[in-house]
Amino acid sequence: MMDATRTLIDAAIAAAAHAYAPYSKFRVGAALRMADGEIVTGANVENASYGLSLCAETVAIAKVANAGRLSDVVEVAVTALASDTPVYPCGRCRQILNEAAALGGRDFDVHCANGDGSEVATYRLSALLPNAFGPESL
Ligand code: THU
Known about the structure:
By secondary structure, the chain is an alpha+beta fold. It is 31% helix and 22% strand. It has helices at 3-16, 56-66, 91-104, 125-128, and strands spanning 28-34, 39-43, 73-80, 109-113, 120-124. It is globular and about 40 Å long. Tetrahydrodeoxyuridine binds at residues 21, 24, 26, 28, 44, 46, 53, 55-57, 89-90, 93.
């Protein structure tokens, strides 16, 4: 694995510490590498009205979107602190990640890591979300 990917996974692990997950106690971290090398992170934000909870990937994507950088995401890592096995983005997050991939005109790697980063499964986003519905579908 490339050093840069290890750094991205470590950033996702660090981000998970900032999760607000008092209900599930499942603390998820996501890290996005941008085209200029910067790493932007997110963690899940739960709510007393459980169904309103925001996933880590969605929080990270919202941050880059608000900075006008949705098209600059080039690589993604996801983890959850308590998980012994790699954590895969939920279906909604795959769709939300796809918007960034489509805007940037690129497919990117999604590194799905366990809680300490010792197990990592890497997939192209297009493999996690085949035949995606995106901006070009409208
Ligand atoms: N969660 C994420 O943050 N990302 C995912 O891709 C899957 C699920 C969060 C939502 C909720 O706060 C907790 O994990 C348990 O479902």
